[in-house]
Amino acid sequence: MRVLSLGAGAIGGYYGGRLIEAGADVSFLVRPERLKKLHENGLRIESAAYGDFTAPKVQAFTAEAAKDQQPFDIVLLTCKAYDLPSAIEAIAPFVERGATILPLLNGIAHLDILNARFSQAQIWGGLAKIAATLRPDGTIQHLNDWRYITFGAQDGTVDARLTALKAAFDRTSVVATLATDVMARMWEKFVHLATVASMTCLMRASVGEIARTPLGTKLMLDMFQTMVEMAHRTGYSVSETFQKEYHELFANRKSGYTASMLRDLEKGGPIEADHIIGFANAKAVELDINAPVLAAAYTHLKAYEERRAAGRL
Predict the structure, then answer these.
(1) What is the dihedral of CA 114, 184, 124, 198, to 10 degrees?
(2) How far apart, in whole angstroms, are the C-alpha atoms of residue 141 and residue 307?
(3) Whole-angstrom distance, CA of residue 232 vs CA of residue 238
(4) Residues 15-51, buried b or exposed e (16+ Cβ, 10 A)?
(5) N vs C: which end of the chain shows fewer Cβ within 10 Å?
(6) CA distance 294 to 96
(7) Number of H helices and number of E strands within the chain?
(8) How far is CA 147 from its chain centroid?
């Protein structure tokens, strides 16, 4: 089994690196500046929880060299949503030659885009639960003990590639789940993500800081219930256990939890506004769900993008 990771950043580099550590055949499709660092320093992972790993030499190439590569079985797609159009063009030659895509993007909206561009049978569902960052020197720093990946066919079937990837991850410290209900799991994560991203960005504050205000917990729970209802009407009911966990989180006045979108926003960087909050807002309109706070959060993010585009941040 040959695996291609689009990117060797925090997500693709971590999962790809752990597969290499276990002896898998993994290559990286990267930008020229990342290729230079990989040639100079190799692929380096630092993890206090699961051990450091360095591959002094890795198989890596840029888009310009794609035509010279042998076919791959699986493509790990780990870009940000705003880079998805260019990412699709970069991986298209490999998908057209038979590769299956495992996208690990936030949200759900990317599946419609990928399904429209390629065969749905070549697009798995997937989600990652990991906290990692790419340092300026190119080292991937694993920040806690999260190292989970879940994947499966959109229609719930299981084939040889899925079982082979699961077996490959089982030889690593990564906890991999081959899910026959991956769409339900993706919707469950989306309920959480859209709630936390919309509320922490709208308030420019952590969950705990919001909870310490007079109406903060109520507003977060109202948003959460909006998303739970959205998932239910779409055909993916959220479990009581999952709901209880987030009711407790949104009442936790000490929580420092924020969405990565807030961190991107506070740095003045690009954000996944349309892909996550815009998608949720459009879905609320489609399903006739009254969601004024969700609409306000989306408008807030789009106004930020307007100011960023005009250089007024």
Answers:
(1) 50
(2) 32
(3) 7
(4) bbbbbbbeebebbbbbeeebbebbeeeebbbebeeee
(5) C
(6) 38
(7) 12, 10
(8) 13
Question: Does position 52 have pLDDT exceeding 90, yes or no?
Answer: yes
DSSP secondary structure, 268-308, as one string: T----IIIIIIHHHHHHHHTT---HHHHHHHHHHHHHHHHH
Angle subtended at Cα 47 by Cα 43 and Cα 49, rounded to the nearest 5 degrees: 150
Is the pTM higher than 0.90? The answer reads yes
The amino acid at residue 167 is: A
- Orientation of helix 182-203 relative to helix 279-286, angle to 10°: 110
Q: Is 75 helix (H, G, I), strand (E, B) or coil?
A: strand
Distance, in Å, from the CA atom of 111 to the CA atom of 261, rounded to the nearest integer, reads 20
**DSSP for 114-139?**
HHHHS-GGGBEEEEEEEEEEE-TTSP
Strand partners, 152: 125
End-to-end CA distance of the chain: 47
**Residue 313: pLDDT over 90:** no
The model's pLDDT over 99-123, given as tens digits with 9 standing for 90+, comes to: 999 999 999 999 999 999 999 999 9
pLDDT at 40 over 90: yes
Residue environment code for 186-201, b if the CB has 16+ CB neighbours within 10 A, otherwise e: bbbbbbbbbbbbbbbb
**Gyration radius of the chain's alpha carbons:** 20
In this structure, the chain runs to a length of 313
Output the six-digit token pair for 112: 């419609």
Give 133's strand partners.
141
Structure token digits, residue 247 = 């009711």
